[in-house]
Structures are given as structure tokens and as C-alpha cells.
Specification:
Radius of gyration: 39 Å
Low-confidence stretches: 135-140, 183-206, 360-369
Order of helices and strands: HHHHHHHH
Distance between the termini: 155 Å
Mean pLDDT: 78
Number of strands: 0
Structural class: mainly alpha
Amino acid sequence: MDRAARRRAAQRRRRRRLHLSGGPRGDGGGRTEWRRVWAGLVTALPGLAAVAAVLFTWVSVGQTKEELRISREAQITGRYTAAVANLGDDSADVRVGGIYALERIMRDSPRDQSTGLSVLAAYVRAHARLPAGRAQGAGADVPQPLPVDLQAAVTVLANRPVDITDTTRLQLRYVSLRGLADMGDLDRARQDLHEVRSEDLVLRSSVYRANLLRADLTGSDLREASLVDAGLGDALLTGADLRKADLREADFTNAVLSGADLRGANLSDAGFFGNDLRRVRLGGVKAQQATFSRADLRGVDLRGADLRGAYLDRADLRGADLRGADLSNADLSGSRLAGVRREGANLTGANLQGVQSEDEGSFQVAPPT
């Protein structure tokens, strides 16, 4: 081989060595670059490990939450099944326990609230059903006092939280709830058992300030019931028997009362705002300071009613029978008491002392009969 060929072969070998070594000997550029790459990888390893740990934790937390949710739902289902089973027990104490267990479930699981309310309402309808004769207006009596389990069920229903957008009605048609009473004594017992907050005690555990908003109590027997400060707005009380019921401070805004019997009821400080009361029996009611603003009372029997200090402003009283009623200090501003063709209110023997009216001359006092 000539000298030129040997030189070319030597150059090829040198280039191959340079390629394999990453550069000329003594340069170190290739090695430095590799060292930088490896150093970067080593530096990034803790960050990558942290990211992996975060991802693992996120997946683990999500899986744990799902497992807890499934476990919680299974637990609530078990509690619900046990509570419903208790409602069919022969012992009243066990039934009451089942009722309050359902209340606790409804507090712990809002999504199950409607189901719990439906079950309790069905329980009341099944165990407090009016006799067929009474439901048809025969006037059959019901036993007293109200059984403790029914009292407890109605208490839970009456203290349910109600969303302003909720239009659900409590279906309590034609039930016998005569003598429904305040459960103040039970409140104190429940405070020890369930650690109820003192400010929630009365509101959550008694019929006082009962929330019966939009309840359907059509034809129900609520004689002598205690529903002080009850919320009965938008309730259906058609044909309900509320004789001698304690309805002080109750709110009847937009309630339907056609055919209801409130004779002898205590309506002191109660509120009727624009209600149609034409077919309501109100004889002998105690309605001191009650509000009947814009109420339609045409032809209503109010004989002997105690209306002292009542607000009857802009009420329509044409044809109402107010014989012997006490209207002292009542506000009759803008009320319609007189009209044509014997439509005037009968105020014979009524006490009109201190009555406030824009036009007292409009009073039409019928002659004694």
C-alpha cells in the first residue's frame, strides 16, 4: 500500500474513533454535554417523583371518597330499612324510635328527605284514618288523646325544613288528629338523648311553630289541636274541622278554607290576608288582634265572635252576621259593611266602642229579630 493509501486509512480510523468518543481527545465537549444531560435527569427525578406522588394521592383520595360514599349510602340504606321496619312493630316505643330515626336520616341525607316525609305521611294516613262516615260529613268522633306515635310523626312532619321553591304538599287528607298537642316535655328528654342545640329545641322537636306550609289537610279532624304560631300558608283546609283549636298567631296566607269549621277556635293574632272565608264557620271565635285585611267575609256567621282590636281593614263584611260580636277597638277602615238589597252586615247587639273606620255612617245595624 502506498503512502497516500495508508494516510487515508489512518484518517478513516481517526474519524471513527472521534465519532465513537464524541470528539477529539482532550476536547471533552461531548462528555460535558452528556454529563449535563445526566445531571438534568438526576435533578428532575425528585420533581418527577413528587408529581407521581401527587397523582397517586389524587387517585387514592378519589377512590377513598368513592368507597366512603358507597359505604355511607349502604349505611343509610341499612338505617332506613331498620327505621321502616320499626314502624310496624307492636310496641309504641319502638314505633316512636323508628319515627325519630327517620327524622335523623332526613337530616343526615337531604336527598332522602322527600322519601322519609312520604313514608311518615303515609304512616299517619294509615293509622289516623277518619272513619268513612266522618270523611263524608257524618261527624263521627275520634278517640283521645292522640297516640304518642302519631303525635311524634306529625311533629317530625311539622318541623321539616321547607325550601321556598319546594311545591311538595304533605298529603294528610281525612286524618284524625284531634287533640294534637305541644310536646315540650319530650323536647327536654330529646335534648339529653340527641344533644339538640338549645336554640333549635322548640323549633325542631315540638308542634309549636309547626311548618305546615302547603300541607293538604282536606277534611281532617283537628278539633282542639294546638297549632300555636303554625305556618299554614297555601295549605288546603277544605272541610277541615278546627273547632276549639288553638291557632294563636297562625299564618293562613293563601290557605284554602272553604267549608272549614273554626267555631270556638282561638285565632288571636292570627293572620288572614285576602283569604276567601265566605264558606267558613267562625261563630264564637276568639280573634283578638287577628288580621283579616282584604278578607272576603260576605255572609259569614260571626255571631258572638271576640274581634276586639282585630284588623278588618278593607275586608268585605256585606251580609255577615255579627250579632253580639265584640268589635271594640277594631279597625274597620275601608271595610264594606253595607250594600244594596239587604246586603248590610248585621251588627245587632255588637260592641262597636272605639271602632276605627273611615266612614262610620256606612254601618248598617239590622233591627232586632
